[in-house]
Specification:
- With about 375 residues, the protein is an alpha/beta fold.
- It contains 14 helices and 8 strands.
- A 5-stranded mixed β-sheet has the order 6-5-4-7-8, with helices on both faces.
- Helix 1 packs across helix 12 and helix 4 crosses helix 5.
- The longest helix is centred in the C-terminal third of the chain and has 21 residues.
- The N terminus and C terminus are likely disordered.
Length: about 375
């Protein structure tokens, strides 16, 4: 399959993961993710999604993977982030992330706080207002009880989830019933004011569910953070207008149709994505390093989000986190977010804590539709 992207002719085989470019000198970024629960963002196993990327040569990456094996000395055939996260290997983990380690200045992590992602997507669908998502997330957690807030998040998750085995409109009815009950329970609050706006958009919710039912295939599920994370990653590495390629670990989500969507969406947004291919992680040491970093970042960020962060590890992760993270919790982001001390790669936040970038819009497309 051949494509013309950003002025560079690129040919690749999406299935076998082979690629040939007719323009030299374009860097290839190796990528992997951690914390993927599909669209089940409120009932899955993780509360953070991390998409990591590494820019190293294959030879250099192979040497670093071997160095990690030499330091850990585990008989496991394939190493994972959990090997590095064990307390007995703390020194290896600190070395890997440190300024003298192999990843510093050559890697990036895009973080997504899943609960905020759900609120952001619901506000985008029903209101088209990113500010409403930030306000609802902040005020909702402070106003409602923990159980009530979880109930709202679960209702929003069900509303947006593509797969639903019951009555087509059941998620709509459940969501708006939850919104109505919370409005009545907390009248006059800032959270109730935003819920009142949501309550007026039942027709949009019904149209959304009808669109899902009418089509056999949803190309870009709005609740799956992988596709927008890949676009953020490509945007980060192509800053300044340089073209880049991405090599990504194989993922069931990354079908040929969705890869084509990524290419088209990048082109529309002015992201210089010159190629995208799938590789087998165990055969590519660069992707193995991205896999390590994604798992490590997810664990450190999740610990910080839940108030059990390790200050030393959080500080070590900070140079890798991107300011475009989709994150709603102010306290944890004050510790995780990039600053000028992060090697000068990102400006200090405008205030000690703030919500960073929301996710890129992902309208629903079916095969044959443009981005």
């Amino acid at each position: 399959m051949g494509h013309k992207i950003g002025g560079c002719g690129v040919t690749w085989d999406h299935v076998n993961g082979t690629a040939v470019a007719d323009a030299g000198g374009i860097p290839e970024i190796a990528c992997d993710e951690s914390g993927s629960d599909g669209e089940n963002l409120t009932g899955g196993n993780t509360d953070v999604f991390a998409h990591a990327s590494v820019l190293l040569s294959a030879d250099s990456a192979a040497g670093q993977v071997q160095e990690i094996r030499n330091r850990i000395r585990s008989p496991a055939e394939e190493y994972k982030a959990n090997h590095l996260l064990r307390e007995k290997h703390r020194a290896v983990l600190e070395w890997l992330l440190s300024a003298s380690g192999p990843l510093y200045g050559h890697a990036h992590v895009h973080l997504v706080e899943k609960s905020f992602f759900v609120v952001d997507r619901a506000a985008d669908l029903l209101l088209g207002d990113p500010g409403a998502a930030v306000s609802l997330f902040r005020h909702g957690r402070r106003t409602f009880t923990g159980a009530e807030w979880r109930r709202f998040l679960e209702a929003a998750n069900q509303l947006l989830w593509v797969r639903h085995d019951g009555e087509p409109d059941a998620p709509v009815e459940h969501f708006f019933r939850t919104v109505g009950e919370l409005r009545q329970r907390y009248p006059g609050t800032a959270a109730a004011d935003i819920l009142a706006r949501l309550a007026e958009e039942r027709s949009r919710a019904l149209a959304y569910r009808a669109g899902i039912q009418d089509g056999p295939f949803v190309l870009t599920p709005v609740l799956n953070p992988l596709l927008p994370s890949i676009l953020h990653t490509a945007d980060h590495w192509s800053a300044g207008g340089r073209p880049v390629r991405l090599a990504h670990d194989r993922q069931n989500m990354l079908t040929p149709e969705r890869i084509a969507w990524i290419e088209g969406a990048a082109r529309v947004r002015g992201i210089r994505l010159a190629g995208f291919r799938l590789v087998v992680s165990r055969l590519d040491p660069r992707v193995q390093l991205a896999d390590f970093l994604a798992g490590i970042a997810r664990r450190i960020a999740s610990d910080e989000l839940n108030g059990r962060g390790d200050p030393a590890l959080t500080a070590l992760l900070r140079p890798y986190t991107g300011a475009a993270a989709v994150w709603g919790d102010e306290r944890s982001w004050a510790r995780l977010g990039p600053t000028t001390e992060s090697g000068g790669r990102s400006a200090r936040l405008d205030s000690p804590v703030r919500i960073t970038g929301r996710c890129l819009p992902l309208p629903f497309f079916r095969p044959g539709a443009g981005p």
